[in-house]
Hints:
The structure is a homodimer. Chain A is 47% helix and 17% strand. The first copy, chain A, has 2 domains: 1-121 and 288-328, Isopropylmalate Dehydrogenase (3-Layer(aba) Sandwich); 127-279, Isopropylmalate Dehydrogenase. Chain A contains 13 helices and 11 strands. The first copy, chain A, is an alpha/beta fold. In chain A, strands 3-2-1-4-11-10-5-6-9-7-8 form an 11-stranded mixed sheet, with helices on both faces. In chain A, helix 1 links the parallel strand 1 (2-6) and strand 2 (31-36). Chains A and B meet through helix 8, helix 9, helix 10 and helix 11 of A and helix 8, helix 9, helix 10 and helix 11 of B.
Amino acid sequence: MRIVVDAMGSDQYPGPDVGGAVLAAREWGDEITLVGNEDLIQAELAKHVTSGLKLEIVGASEVIGMLDKPGESSQKKTDSSMHVGMSLVRAGQADGFVSAGNTGAVLAVALLQTLKRIRGVKRPALTAVFRNPTGYTIMADFGANADCRPEWLVQFGVMANQYAKLGLGIAEPRVALLSNGEEEGKGNSLVHDALPLMQAEKGFHFVGNMEPKEVLLGETDVIIHDGFTGNIMGKSLEAMGSMMSRLIREEIKASPISLVGGALASSAFQRVRKRVDPFEVGGAILLGVDGIVIIGHGRSNDVAVKNAIRQARQAIQGNVVEAIKSGF
Amino acid sequence: MRIVVDAMGSDQYPGPDVGGAVLAAREWGDEITLVGNEDLIQAELAKHVTSGLKLEIVGASEVIGMLDKPGESSQKKTDSSMHVGMSLVRAGQADGFVSAGNTGAVLAVALLQTLKRIRGVKRPALTAVFRNPTGYTIMADFGANADCRPEWLVQFGVMANQYAKLGLGIAEPRVALLSNGEEEGKGNSLVHDALPLMQAEKGFHFVGNMEPKEVLLGETDVIIHDGFTGNIMGKSLEAMGSMMSRLIREEIKASPISLVGGALASSAFQRVRKRVDPFEVGGAILLGVDGIVIIGHGRSNDVAVKNAIRQARQAIQGNVVEAIKSGF
């Protein structure tokens, strides 16, 4: 297995990107190709013990940054680490691509310049995977398509279902449609129109409309929504989680007694964070393009990049792209 | 001031509804009219000390329950407590109406059967008010209109701005548009189309597109969105808050040491709850109908009903309906 890692992806590139690649190469023994500025990558690799690891460097002269416009940069910076990295996957020289870079740019380069869409897929879906108290939940679409048509949502369901099964090992994934109420009459016009199509689809086990509360409790494995609503939901969950953690820290520090209490309860807080941490998974798979692409958070550290590489490994081992192709 | 309270509103009616009315009459000395089944209301009132309070009962023979369909029940149950109560406001015999009942039904009865829309208002907006760490945030629309047109969002901004000023006492409310990114290129087509209209509107101080995180931190006083997205965001915030509280309780109980820690830190947890409690405010005002209507949570207890009555008082004192009328 060979995985390409964008060395120029994360906010603090190439540190976390190279560090994560080293961790992954050490843990799993895969071949890892680092793409980007060769000097920078060499200098970064020199900080690690890399003997015996299957690490390779492929040069790319340009960098697409977080502030670059996706459409424009994907067209102009054709020797970027994203272009070079995904072209290796396209050419069959690598099995998957991982980047902690500009999400919109990865999407544009994958879709328009390199891997292209799988035949029959109308629109790709960006996923997000969060940890609920009992397992994982896959959100799709998380932002690739701000406006959606009902039939696209059905396709997101088909693709996310395959990923849940083959990439995350969920035996019989439940697929639900995000709505503001479980009753069939609830929802906006997109939900109204998508509901009968989702019910009629044979490609997944559909469990109906679902509200955020039940999604969060893990009552579905896959939740389907347009990219705008899904992004708002995901960001709301994350924002509320961070704010509560911050307020708890602040208020515990506000008195000596609660400070002692907080110290005694710190293991409990750590367990809570493990049970709801939205970052634990590492990255999001881009479904519907002809190759494995995992997009990590810009704020990734070494471990987060390693986790994103693990996601790529699992999707490659599960043959997710072939499974999706066979469904269309 | 006379406020009508729907005695048949809450999940546990008439207990919390009557109890809240008694608390309000005692605290502020207003005249309060309880509408609903007279025998039930009398029996409930007998549990309280009511001498000297200005409480009155008006009979209504029907009840619209939480499971009733809004459209159907608003047309058929024309002697419901909602119909009778809002007709009193319509006739000028009362200044505002408070119900902890079926939100969709209150909306339908207000809009189609009794108070009707203010001239010039294209669609009413349901609000939600949540406590952020530094003050209050008004969300509009919270679910009255699942699908919206760009110009409706502008009207929601005009109405919510008046309510923020006159009903909640925010001197110069900031108004923002909910989006999945602050940049102008972000958003779905509704946000794209609404943005220039919001920027051009003189009726409020517009601060641009805003993501959930910044909304939650209190960087705007009013956040505008379609009713579907707003409802999903609000429910996501609430769900995450409840889940974190629950997990913290569970994990603190999981070991004797953290249990002691949790007890010592309990005042800190209480302060956190005060700073982010989405329920503290009590109810949501329905903006754009020709009268003050406050809708409380079905799960309201006595204090929540009292708080909803306070919201009605403040909106009446602020002359919110007249202010909105003058803006159209």
